[in-house]
Amino acid sequence: MAESATIEPIIGRYLNLSIAGRRQRLYFEEAGSGIPLLCLHTAGADGRQWRHLMVDEAISRHFRVLAFDLPWHGKSNPPEGYERETYRLTTADYVATIRAFCAALALDRPVAMGCSIGGRIVLELAIAHAHEFRALIGLEAADFQTPWYDTAWLNRPDVHGGAVCAALVSGLIAPTSPEAARHETLWHYLQSGPGIFQGDLYFYRVDGDLRGRVAGIDTRTCPLYLLTGDYDFSCTPEDTKRTAAQIPGAEITIMSELGHFPMSENPAQFRRYILPVLERIRAQPETGQ
Questions:
Q1: Is 289 within the bounds of a domain?
Q2: Residue 1 lies in a domain
Q3: CB-based contacts of 120: which residues, under 8 Å, 6+ apart?
Q4: Contacts of residue 194, Cβ cutoff 8 Å, sequence gap at least 6
Q5: Which of 30, 36, 38, 32 is nearest to 57 (CA)?
């Protein structure tokens, strides 16, 4: 007997808006209802990384889960005139994109959860815009990581950029992650546009350096949760612990059997850690008004 077909509850839409004075066509997906939960993807990837959260009824019954593809990423178009420029993500543009998206959808003090570069920008949001969020969750987040890779290989005409990107990040996935989820995570990198991963790493390596700034985060205004996989050698547990030690009230969890992409490389294992955090956020009294 053939298996029955199913339709997932994820809805995809395009949002046309201005970001930092420039028109953008931003693709986003959402599922569920309740507290807005904005999910920010990793460098060189897109919002597909969050699909497992969107179809998890334990989450979607309480949270409206949203994930957009950054401009130039996934199904979001690059802006008009992109062919005359080189993509390079900056802190200012990243923050402007997040705030413009929240404003366009009238999200009332959402929870923001980001991974890798998304985790780094969560720390920036905690520094400069904490009052706009109900809670902030940084996955694989730290104030700075010493680069361990050569970005010159990421955009060359004689090298398959997607294959190099996927190869570069493959070791960041925990060896205990299921094979299907591992390869799905890598597929996002195999599809990345030329020079996009390299442009994101400008933010991660240079412009988003938060050393000396995270001590100003006030977790009384907005709770901050930091979760890092024990197999991550890019943002190591020690990097996250060092960062958390500078932020009074920050809550830190080191996740076993997980690497740099917990939400996509092993969704079942990640679920064990994120569900209690989301439940605590749901139960917390409103702050930062």
A1: no
A2: no
A3: 114, 138, 141, 142, 203, 204, 208, 210
A4: 155, 161
A5: 32
In a domain, 3, yes or no: no
Domain that holds residue 187: 11-283
* CB-based contact 54:28 (threshold 8 Å): no
Render pLDDT for 230-263 as a digit per residue (tens, 0 to 9): 999 999 999 999 999 999 999 999 999 999 999 9
Q: Tell me the sheet residues that pair with 227.
A: 139, 253
pLDDT at residue 129 is higher than 60: yes
Question: How many structural domains does the chain have?
Answer: 1
Phi and psi (nearest 5°) for 166? -65, -40
- 258 near 229, Cβ under 8 Å? yes
Using a pLDDT cut of 90, give the percent of the chain over it: 87
Give the pLDDT confidence of 32-44 residue by residue, as tens digits: 999 999 999 999 9
Give dist(CA 219, CA 233) in Å, integer: 27
Answer yes or no: is 106 within a domain.
Answer: yes
- The enclosing domain of 206 has a CATH number of 3.40.50.1820
State how far Cα 127 lies from the chain centre.
17
pLDDT in tens, 204-213: 999 999 999 9
